[in-house]
Amino acid sequence: MPIKLLSEDVASRIAAGEVVERPASVVKELVENSLDAGATRVEIETRDGGRALIRVRDNGCGIHSTEVGLAFRRHATSKLESADDLERIATLGFRGEALSSVAAVSRLTCVTCHQSEAVGTRLRLEGGEVVTQGAVGRPAGTEIVVEDLFYNVPARRKFLRTDRTERRHIDGFATRYAIAYPDTAFTVVHDGREALSTPGKGDPREVLLSVYGVDLGSELLDIPRSLTATDAIHVRGFVGPTSVHRANRGYITLFINGRWIEDLRLSYAIIQAYHTLLPVQRYPVAFVIIDMPPQDVDVNVHPTKAEVRFRDGDAVFRAVQRAVRATVVNQAPTTATWSPPEHGTEEDREIQRRRLAGLQPAQQQAIRFTWDDVPADRGDSGSGSVGFGESDKHASTTQAFDANATRTESALSPRPGTTDQQHRQHLPMLRVVGQLATMFIIAEGPDGLYLVDQHAAHERVLYEHMVANAVQGEVPRQPLLEPAAVTLPPDEASEVEALMPTLAAVGIEIEPFGPATFLVRTVPVPLQSIAPGDLLADVAASAHPDGPGATKSSVQSQMEEVIIRHICKRAAVKAGQVLSREEMERLIRDLEHTENPRTCPHGRPTIIKISTEELARQFGRGGL
Ligand code: ADP
Ligand code: MG
Questions:
Q1: How far apart are CA 587 and CA 574, in angstroms?
Q2: Which of 143, 233, 283, 594 has CB 3.0 to 4.6 Å from 57, enough for a Cys bridge?
Q3: Would you say 604 and 466 are in contact if contact means Cβ atoms under 8 Å apart?
Q4: Hey, which of 77-86, 196-205, 424-433 has the most confident mean pLDDT?
Q5: Can you tell me the distance from the alpha carbon of 240 to that of 226, in angstroms, rounded to the nearest whole number?
Q6: Ligand 1 in contact with 37 (CB < 6 A)?
Q7: Which of 10, 42, 77, 92 to mutate to test the pocket of ligand 1 (most atoms within 8 A of CB)?
Q8: What's the pLDDT at 107?
């Protein structure tokens, strides 16, 4: 289609707004154009985080010499003809605004040659005005060089973040498109250093390996084609097995019809698909690509096209949730280490069935979930509803128990966020009675029954241990016999690299080893059990300024604290882990010695107490 100016009518129906916010938005617009032009090679290069220079070169169809000037006019596009076309957009671009907007705030050079022509065009613009135009030889394709971004908008320039942050945004974008477009070879080079390079041979798995490294890349599960929910909505992509999880939602990526979008509701569909399968407050890694008829999705709702609207949102939600859930349930190795007692009672078996319900597709409908459950913790009713307390037979006792638990807990433990140093209450001596549901330790104290969440308690113990060591500047570290090479996605790698001194302070000594690979040389002694790859992934996640685990603080000690908190979560014993009596006793003793035994480092309770009086009252022994 030739490039034409949109009519007033069509132009006015286009979601207007700022397209160029930062270097990454320029990269996004230019790469989208390259993909729309059918490129099988896209090379991205930046200098100074994109401030000084952004170059995007492709081998797409090129722009015809007669149309190059027009392409830089506002509302000039070859992708839209009539208002009707807005209803079924199959290209990434359609508004004819990107080139003009980028040119307006930079010094831009476009060198392009249309596939039908022998000679190409070179066009130079400054602040949107054409300065020179001439003929030049080059093979079919387009190269756009954007220099001095925002040179004429000082206010914008001032608000750009650090080079590193800008690079991270660019890498995050390029990485995702590289995965979604495996037929296209992507390279990203920052300041002469290669950050990403994908083969473009059409094999998505190969791209995953080059982006995520062998560890994560080979672990991700394919969403099988057969799970496609309806004829109209096809869901494909990759999801992590239940053993892979992250501290925030930043590892959930959604594509609709070739476009990366943000959609809270669909992210939630994916999180929900993992409900009960991941540790609390951990999020899945997922790359979900949805293909559906363009007329069923409206992309003309957001200036940067990052959000879409569906004709039937519920159908898309269901399709995604079903495909992801089925993939995880069918293929994931079972995470429960709990084995049934050989001669269990019917009640035991019922309990076990309910505990494992989350692993069985047939139980899906039984799983209730609300928004509030997303950050649910084990101490609240979220897990109770899928756990062992749901049997009708036990309904009344369960309620009574919950009511007590809530009351007692709020009286005992500081709410999340309140560090209760002044009123520090040490634990009384506790006698271990046993383990409940491979999740809780039952203990007796001088004045009642104590239920200890084994994971939360262990997290607390590890955390205080690590912090104490870090404060004294002597975290004991364990050299790895063989340094472990860990490859991270480029955006994470730059985070981790920036944190190297902080990491060393908490016992993790690493050194760069190739573009996005690190050699892990030592790990902190209390956390030896964590795989080095997981360790670094946690660190990157904890430093991620966009996620819920965010910290923007540059204060080293705060960063140390955040890192320690994250890795302790990973290292602590899990729910579902059978503990020996000695292990339980050691954990309780260790917990007694902590400063804040009653909450885990994330502020959730470690202990629930039911007083003897309360029990007596429940049993109708009011007079005790
Ligand atoms: P849009 O992508 O919304 O159409 P742009 O301002 O991004 O608007 O681009 C204007 C037009 O310039 C496009 O419609 C397309 O015809 C042409 N164009 C831009 N970039 C390229 C490219 N890399 N290869 C071929 N054509 C391009
Ligand atoms: Mg465009």
A1: 13
A2: 143
A3: no
A4: 196-205
A5: 18
A6: yes
A7: 77
A8: 97
